[in-house]
Amino acid sequence: MGENIKHLGNVLLQQKREIALTVHKRRLEGESLKTLKEIRHVEEELLLLRAHFISLFGQSLLNQDFEGSLSLFSDWGINTGASLSAQGVPLDEALKDVAFYRRAIWEVLKKEMKGKDFSIDEVFEVKDIIDPLLDFALYNFSLSYVDSYTNTLNNSRRAFLELSVPVVPITNDIAILPLIGDIDTERAQLLMEETLVKTRDMGINHLIIDISGVVIIDTMVANELFKLMDALGLLGIATIFSGVRPEIAQTMVNLGLNTKDLVTKASLRQALALLERENIK
């Protein structure tokens, strides 16, 4: 029984290029001319990748080491999933390949098993090797793709949030932090971290936080701004809030927030004028 299965492994290894071509052609059926043109310059690379994947099945049948094969297919799934995610290939498009691989591999195996008059036990033994390995590869591929996509998304979001904390120096001692849009928990935390680092590195002693672009001031936002003010105070940096609109002032009062230590101005111009009067440059 073992020799027959090894024979099938050799067949897959010998015909990996032909099977890869079959998968490739079927996969591209119905695609637009634009897609076919885009793929043409990487077609040989794609065929090599497909042939390599098929060779893993051949090696698995040849070696008959299921545990060792699981490691090979896990590595393939992890590496390929991350790679396609980084290239921006949609997950649903990538998953379409699975059916084509399964069909093409089994067409070759069935033809060979019929010609060699395999027993029903041998057929099921081969099936119990090929299908679980393909499913395992798909499982690891999907996990890796999603992890890579999530990491890319989180990194992009963090980069965007970092850009949304623009501490702008206007003199040696003064900088402005204009805040725009909603402030959620994640942005509030980053606001604290980035502002403290940037103001410390700049060596300023006054920071104007302009909140004219903040749509909503609720308890969470107000508390985070107060915490930021307290933290800046520990660094020796005085804070002025500008852009305090009437509705924001009313909201802060209604929330019962302690504003006695808060220095506020209705506009950025007024905040700068205050610092000028105090001869801070």
What features would you describe in this structure?
α9 runs parallel beside α10. This protein has a 5-stranded mixed sheet. It has 12 helices and 5 strands. Helices cover 70% and strands 9% of the residues. The chain is α/β, with parallel strands linked by helices and 281 residues long.
Uncertain runs with pLDDT below 50, 5 residues or more? none
Q: How many helical elements?
A: 12
Number of strands: 5
Q: What is the C-alpha radius of gyration, as a whole number of Å?
A: 31 Å
Strand order of the largest sheet: 1-2-3-4-5
H and E string: HHHHHHHHEEHEHEHEH
Oligomer: single chain
C-alpha termini separation: 88 Å
Structural class: alpha/beta
Largest sheet report: 5 strands, mixed
Approximate shape: rod-shaped
SSE inventory with pairings:
Elements: H1 2-14, H2 16-28, H3 33-40, H4 43-63, H5 66-87, H6 91-95, H7 97-115, H8 120-163, E1 168-169, E2 174-180, H9 185-202, E3 206-213, H10 219-234, E4 238-242, H11 246-254, E5 264-265, H12 268-277
Parallel strand pairs: 2-3, 3-4, 4-5
Antiparallel strand pairs: 1-2
Key descriptive features of the protein:
alpha/beta; five-stranded mixed β-sheet; 281 residues; 9% strand; 5 strands
In a nutshell, what does this entry contain?
With 281 residues, the protein is α/β, with parallel strands linked by helices. It has helices spanning 2-14, 16-28, 33-40, 43-63, 66-87, 91-95, 97-115, 120-163, 185-202, 219-234, 246-254, 268-277, and strands spanning 168-169, 174-180, 206-213, 238-242, 264-265.
